[in-house]
Amino acid sequence: MRKALCVSVALLASGAANAESEAQWGYSGAKGPENWAELSPDNFACAGKNQAPINLTGFIEAELQPITFDYQKGAEQILNNGHTVQVNYEQGSSIDVDGITFDLKQFHFHAPSENHIDGESYPLEAHLVHASDEGDLAVVAVMFEEDTANEGLKKAWTKMPEQAGEERALPSSVRAEDILPENRDHYRFNGSLTTPPCTEGVRWLVMKQPLTASSEQIERFADVLHEPNNRPLQPVNARPVLQ
Ligand SMILES: [Zn+2]
């Protein structure tokens, strides 16, 4: 009897610890985006002048160099971290931008989209997160319109982690390539991570051509997260959006 009580107390304690770590920041209420900068000294950048997401508009013609994609198979796990559903990628896939190689680390999703294009919000946005050896970051963003199902999402969603903190192995048939449009023309701006600590100096590469996902695929993601996981639009300030 006493043992059982100890176990249940331990479970309660670990439950409380989980709740606490999950609640460090969120998308609504006191820990919501308006207060991220005040939640921790580490989050000072959240109040910065070069934050993401933004409404991409007022494009400046810049003859952007093409992004060289070198994506291989390599999905390892899919995890639900309480803020998004993320596919971790093994070493070996990369993009080249500005003569720098950025390795693909993971991709994850936001519903509805965080960035807007010419004032338009999309029901789903993918972020493919890359880092250089020097620790510089480049995010490729892909918008999804609601229409036919996406093959990449179909494979990944079969292993959908339902609970925050849950992680599941993925077959290598889940490929980052499947959530990239054929046409790689893109917009570019200088921004930040869209979650705390909102680190700036991130190269944002937003694909012009949206993909499609079915309403079921979008709802499945939204259901698992329980609330919208889009940071509100941030002031563009002096930044140009190039195309
Ligand atoms: Zn993101």
Largest sheet: 11 strands, mixed
Count of spatially separate domains: 1
Return the CATH topology.
Answer: Carbonic Anhydrase II
- What is the first-to-last residue Cα distance? 68 Å
CATH architecture: Roll
Give the overall shape, derived from the CA principal axes: globular
Bound molecules: zinc ion
Rg calc? 19 Å
Portion in beta strands = 25-35%
Helical proportion, percent range: 10-25%
How does this structure look, described?
The chain has one domain: Alpha carbonic anhydrase (Carbonic Anhydrase II). With 243 residues, the protein is of the alpha+beta class. The termini are far apart. Strand 5 and strand 6 form a beta hairpin. The longest helix is centred in the first third of the chain and has 21 residues. Strands 2, 3, 4, 5, 6, 8, 9, 10, 11, 12 and 13 form an eleven-stranded mixed beta sheet that branches. A two-stranded parallel ribbon has the order 1-7. The protein is built from four helices and 13 strands. Bound molecules: zinc ion. The site of zinc ion has 4 residues, from strand 6.
